Amino acid sequence: MIPPKIANLSEWGPFQLDALGLLTIFGAKEMNTAVGNLVQSSVTEWLPILGSYTVANDDIIKPEPGYVLYNITDGIMATDVSAWFTRWISTFPLTYTATTIRLRVENQQLPIVRQAISITIGLSVIGFLFSMAIVTADAWGIANVASMAVSVISRQFIVTCLRSSIDHTIQSLKDDPGQDVKVFMTLPDGKAVTILGPRMIVVTCLLTEAQPIHPQSYYVMRMASWAAFGAHAITLGMSDLFNQILTVVILLLATYLTATHVGGYREAIGTRLCLDVDMGDPDLPRGAAYSRLKMSPTEEDCMVHWSMMPQRSNVWWWDRYKQQYLSNQATSVTKEMEGNPRIRKSGSHTSQNV
């Protein structure tokens, strides 16, 4: 027996909602970044979100312009930085030039307890919405919740495929990722990041897009995601106002939590690739950041060729670089990271000149 007050909620409708506008306008950009960075979360992994069509449309694996990677050790400049890495690095409050990332290969995955928590949270939310749709006898509301569940499942399959692609790539190296290389990367906003790690990890993970191991299954789940998005847009608009409001509130909350990376395990991508981040001193100038790399004359020439360092004719800059930075640099950034590989410091957005 349904209580009359709850049953009457299906007849309550003092105004209308533009469901299609909510689903297509809000959260698309943020979800493109939050889902596309392939980070696992112990809270938001199985929650329904706004802007889910970015996953169905494969926007999460489309490259972002403006990122340039300089492999100083090998003398290579590349502009085709992996989509997942550009989205991953954009989630950190990077310093202007002092942030250092150390790449490691290690068997590490989200603990079972955290995975269970994320699944439990997702099931609880979907179950709550489903029960409210049943209690209010809202058939469209039931279909709405079902489409949201399909959307979540297909999203998880797609993201898992991309994570597994990185695991497979690292596994194919057969525990021989090559020697460590020094890499400098510039971002669209002018900031720069130092990256240290094995050569083949840089090439195959940071400069090669993650591709699903089973492309046919991946495509099928993308179509399922599109179907779920379309059904969600229609059924949400046809649902009772009470269930519409309930759904929108949960979607907004889940989207906010996902966008702010609540419960995110950002130190690992997949089960093999680990990234240790040291934010560094926000007041560190660009020249001091260069000096930490302990570059050879050949490597310095590469930086000059790429216009990352001034021409040799700029005697004033080079004298200051050698006297003020190189002579006072006690240890290289490589040794700093090796001595404390898991260090992570907070940094502010501070700009310093070369």
What is the topological layout?
Layout: H1 4-7, H2 19-25, H3 28-36, E1 40-41, H4 53-56, E2 68-71, E3 76-78, H5 83-89, E4 100-105, H6 112-135, H7 139-172, E5 180-186, E6 192-198, H8 199-206, H9 215-238, H10 241-259, E7 264-265, E8 268-269, E9 273-278, H11 286-291, H12 297-305, H13 315-326, H14 333-339
Parallel strand pairs: 4-6
Antiparallel strand pairs: 1-7, 2-3, 2-5, 4-9, 5-6, 8-9
Helix pairs in contact: 3-5, 6-7, 6-10, 7-9
Shape: elongated
Tell me, rounded to a whole number, the average pLDDT. 86
Main pleated-sheet profile: 7 strands, mixed
Q: Roughly what fraction of the amino acids lie in strands? A: 5-15%
* Number of extended strands: 9
* Multimeric organization: single chain
Helix content: 40-55%
Following the backbone from N to C, one meets helices and strands in this order, namely: HHHEHEEHEHHEEHHHEEEHHHH
Query: Distance between the terminal alpha carbons, to the nearest Å?
Result: 74 Å
Q: Which structural class is indicated by helix and strand composition?
A: alpha+beta
Strand order, largest beta sheet? 3-2-5-6-4-9-8
Low-confidence stretches: 339-354
The rounded Rg comes to 24 Å
> What's the tally of helices?
14
Keywords: Membrane, Transmembrane, Transmembrane helix
Transmembrane segments: 112-135, 245-265
What's a quick, concise take on this entry?
With 354 residues, the protein is α+β, with helices and mostly antiparallel strands. The chain is built from 14 helices and nine strands. It has a domain of 233 residues.
